[in-house]
Specification:
Blueprint: H1 3-14, E1 20-21, H2 24-28, E2 45-47, H3 52-65, E3 69-72, E4 89-92, E5 99-103, E6 108-111, H4 117-125, E7 129-130, H5 143-149, H6 156-159, H7 162-165, E8 166-172, E9 178-182, H8 194-198, E10 207-214, E11 216-217, E12 223-229, H9 232-245, E13 250-255, H10 256-265, E14 276-282, H11 286-303, E15 307-311, H12 314-325, H13 327-332, E16 336-339, E17 342-343, H14 349-363, E18 366-368, E19 370-372, E20 377-378, E21 381-384, H15 389-408, H16 424-430, H17 433-446
Parallel strand pairs: 2-4, 3-4
Antiparallel strand pairs: 1-2, 5-6, 6-10, 7-11, 8-9, 8-10, 12-14, 12-15, 13-14, 13-19, 16-21, 17-20, 18-21, 19-20
Helix pairs in contact: 1-3, 9-11, 9-14, 14-15
Length: 461
């Protein structure tokens, strides 16, 4: 019996027949995530476990047979992190969607990984609680994927990324053992922080089958500040000034290219001919929120905004934030796209956006820049005419140029999308030699047979 057949036999004993797929036509839709320009191999099967114990049985068989495993959630990743490799088994967790417990007294939820971010947020809202991390893809990205990439979102500037919300995890290790790491209490410092290590590991160290996530009280209605600028660089300086004075709950930026794409795709009332738009929110209650909004307004006006105002209209505020979330699909509608994700120090934000504009001119490619300005997380998106091979080559050069800018200004090659396949070489440049060595030592210690998501996430030397 071949290793693949042995794994399928073990999976057949643990899973229902309909939860194992070997049909090539169906497998095709599980080979890729949403990234452009990342390679994918051919898996021999996809399995859809519904419980931790089923994941454990599958992993035990793969470990014994040395069969590579690619964990997968909703497939919404943007760096190739869940792309299949040749001869792999894809373990897709999309059918593990149950909310296991909402603990109101202690302020956490325990959930299986396949539930979408928005679904979880809506569920806990019924208890008067709020899950803060909110990626722009929240309507179609899974909690398990959020944990594996340490996803962020619009609220990161004040409430942090997924790692800041994770209290504990249930994880199936490469050899099939099940462990629960982390804690139930808000505080706890016993031992190494293994839960934090697992968050953002992109499925290379274990398969998350339950996440215990910190919840907060539902925030009050936010006050929105809108500021328009002639240039991205001026808007960048406003960002730096705002963050010196206060911490908004949201601070987002869109450039002209992105606004025009959104208005073309789904008109939303954006100032499409302006150089840049800042959208800020404060969720402080009552008079404190009004005072905080005034601080943001003054910072924008002093930095050189051509227009700045506080929106008292909740419907308009929701429309503007909705327009920000449309940035990716709007740019995607213009052609093939390659979305970058870099994080830069706020003190170098203005410089970074200007250098990205220079890259657009140098490489002769369209780049729409938007992102979470408050924490320096930019998403420059390169748009390529479909079928234009020369433009695609220039786009990859521009993609790498942007990563170099992030490193040169003291930032990081990813803020929330992960490393996957596309950024392994850039990660090697960001990390020094001892740090690269530690990455491989940790991987070898937890997954000595190297079967979990091989070739992903680790720095490429």
């Amino acid at each position: 019996m071949s290793p693949e057949d042995a794994v399928l036999a073990a999976a057949g004993a643990a899973l229902d027949h309909g939860d194992i797929v070997t049909d090539r036509d169906i497998l095709e839709s599980y080979r890729f995530d949403r990234s452009m320009g990342s390679a994918a191999g051919q898996p021999f099967a996809v399995v859809f476990p519904r419980s931790t114990e089923q994941v454990s049985e599958v992993m035990r068989a793969c470990h014994e047979q040395r069969v590579p495993v690619v964990p997968r959630g909703a497939g919404s990743g943007l760096t190739g992190g869940s792309n299949a490799i040749d001869g792999s088994l894809v373990v897709c967790l999309e059918r593990m969607r149950d909310v296991l417990e909402v603990n109101v007294a202690n302020g956490y939820v325990e959930t299986q990984p396949g539930i979408f971010n928005t679904e979880l947020r809506d569920h806990v809202a019924g208890f008067g609680l709020w899950y803060a991390p909110d990626p722009a893809s929240k309507d179609f990205c899974s909690i398990g994927g959020n944990v594996n990439t340490n996803a962020g979102g619009l609220c990161c500037v004040k409430y942090g990324v997924t790692r800041d919300a994770v209290l504990g995890l249930e994880v199936v290790l490469p050899d099939g053992r099940i462990t629960r790491i982390g804690r139930r209490s808000i505080k706890g410092v016993a031992g190494y922080d293994l839960a934090a290590l697992m968050v953002g590991s992109e499925g290379t160290l274990g398969i998350v089958t339950m996440a215990r996530l910190r919840l907060r009280p539902l925030p009050p209605a936010a006050t929105t500040v809108v500021a328009v600028f002639d240039e991205m660089g001026v808007a960048g300086r406003a960002v730096e000034e705002i963050m010196r004075r206060t911490t908004p709950s949201i601070l987002e930026i869109l450039d002209r290219t992105t606004m025009q794409a959104v208005e073309q795709w789904r008109p939303s009332g954006l100032p499409a001919n302006a150089g840049a738009l800042l959208l800020a929110q404060t969720d402080l209650p009552g008079a404190a929120g009004a005072t905080d909004a005034d601080v943001i307004l003054r910072a924008c006006e002093e930095a050189g905004a051509t227009e700045a105002y506080r929106s008292e209209d909740q419907e308009q505020s929701e429309m503007l934030m909705g327009a920000r979330r449309m940035a990716i699909p709007a740019l995607e509608a213009l052609g093939d796209w390659l979305l970058d994700d870099v994080s830069v120090p706020r003190s170098r934000f203005a410089e970074s956006v200007q250098r990205i504009e220079e890259i657009s001119h140098l490489r002769e490619v369209m780049i729409g820049s938007f992102g979470h300005a408050g924490d320096g997380n930019l998403h420059p998106t390169i748009v390529i005419p479909r079928g234009d091979a020369d433009a695609a080559e220039r786009a990859m050069l521009a993609f790498d140029d942007i990563l170099k800018v992030a490193i040169e200004v003291g930032g990081s090659v990813t803020g929330e999308h992960g490393v996957g396949l596309l950024k392994r070489r850039a990660l090697a440049e960001e990390l020094d030699e001892p740090a690269r060595d530690l990455h491989f030592r940790i991987k070898d210690a937890i997954d000595p047979r190297g079967i979990l998501n091989p070739g992903k996430s680790l720095p490429r030397w």
